[in-house]
Design a protein that fits this description.
Shape: rod-shaped
Number of helices: 3
Region (Disordered): 1-49
Structural class: mainly alpha
Radius of gyration: 35 Å
Biased composition (Basic and acidic residues): 1-25
Coiled coil: 58-99
Largest sheet: none
Number of domains: 2
Oligomer: single chain
Keywords: Coiled coil
């Protein structure tokens, strides 16, 4: 590790010796732009890979299934409540018929 650090420091010093501040700034700016371009390409390639392998589609389907399950659970609980109220009303109607 120490050897690598010394080599890096040596390279950094030579870089500073051989290039003016303006040149270093231009080099670093170009390197930053190149890194951004490469990262953008990697991101696009990763997205295409996900599309081609079906990973993206599977993920979307899983999300939709999860939402559908939540919706089904909500409907089931509302239906259960409604059926309970209907049973209660039917019992009340039956009681009224018996008393009249």
């Amino acid at each position: 590790m120490e050897k690598a650090e010394k080599s890096a420091e040596k390279a950094k010093d030579k870089y500073k010796e051989n290039f003016s501040e303006e040149a270093r700034s231009n080099i670093e700016s170009a390197a930053g732009k190149a890194a951004e371009t490469v990262q953008s390409g990697v991101d696009r390639a990763s997205e295409k890979k996900r599309e081609l392998t079906g990973e993206k589609l599977i993920q979307e389907l899983l999300q939709r299934l999860e939402k559908q399950q939540e919706y089904n659970d909500l409907l089931a609980s509302k239906l259960e409540g409604a059926l309970h109220r209907i049973d209660k009303l039917e019992d009340e109607v039956e009681q009224l018929r018996k008393t009249h």
